[in-house]
Specification:
With about 375 residues, this protein is of the alpha+beta class. It has helices spanning about 15-20, 30-35, 45-50, 65-80, 110-115, 125-140, 155-165, 190-200, 210-230, 270-275, 325-335, 355-365; strands at about 5, 10, 85, 90-95, 100-110, 120, 145-150, 170-175, 180-185, 205-210, 240-245, 255-260, 280-285, 295-300, 305-310, 350. The longest helix has 17 residues, at about 210-230. The radius of gyration is 22 Å and the shape is globular.
Amino acid sequence: MAIIKPFRGVRPPKMLVESIASRPYDVLDSEEARMEAGDNEKSLYHIIKPEINFESIIDESDPRAYDSAVEHFQKFQDKGWLVQDDKDCYYIYAQTMNGKTQYGLVVGAYVDDYLNGNIKKHELTRRDKEEDRMKHVRVCNANVEPVFFAYPDNNVLDTLLSRYAQTTPEYDFVAPDDGFRHQFWVVSDKADIDTITEEFKKMPSLYIADGHHRSAAAALVGAEKAKNNSGHKGDEEYNYFMAVCFQSSQLTILDYNRVVKDLNGMEVAEFLQALEKNFIVELKGEEEYRPTKLHEFSLYIDHNWYSLEAKPGTYDDTDPIGVLDVDISSRLILDELMGIKDLRSDKRIDFVGGLRGLKELKRRVDSGEMRC
């Protein structure tokens, strides 16, 4: 059973939403956030990327950054740029990109569902990023950004979403940076709220689609607050965290790439030869190459792309975990060849996900920051 609840959202007045809206904190670096914020004092980047609020950008883990996040979050509320709704609501968020629209329900997800495994995870979190988001949630006492969940297709909820989609949204704008359209509706009708809550109770699980670090941070801080509250009852706001839930059939799977700082002491030729033990290695040239089938991977190194196809026998088709590409690459490349045993804490590896994809991977390798 998936437990959710409506909540009193803190959000911009309609006339300010375009000035405040930002991309997620983890899809751009500090310099890019500063450039996008420009001289716009209402940009949400001042809260979610507070390291930009200093004359010289400071490290995002600097205590001053968290203090600045709190200061700006309060400033936004004091100036009326963010206003809390006066009653509990659910919300509907729609995003249109590349001609496809996805409709999500914005809900309060239950911390205990995360802790007991009813909210399913599919990737490890990095301790440093998890701790960064925990500090941000702690000091702001809020989930400033949501996580994205998937839920099994549901005809009742699909009908409800379609009905709202025919009405005038509270917000409706196209972001200038990427051309994506964003729409937003408020669900304040009690009957609709009850319907949403009851339909989620019929679901055995929810699935994290994007936002593993934010989910972990929100849930762990919620559990922390419960432990430290001698009068804990279980209905406090900290028992829930903000999530946007999309029907699974509406999701588009994006690549989630690894970038590594070095080859564990090997030269490129030696590394490629070592890969041939478990993979069929094929040079693809300088044009961007994306895997086309199961158990195939792309490698970018020294301005060339390679395809790596896992050889039969390197994975077990009967093992639901061992057959996954993420496990194959972690086990046979990152661990066996590169000596990266703990993806959560090893500083030699980082991740490039979402829409940035292969172009960002290539940029980081070509810049010399990463080796492959």
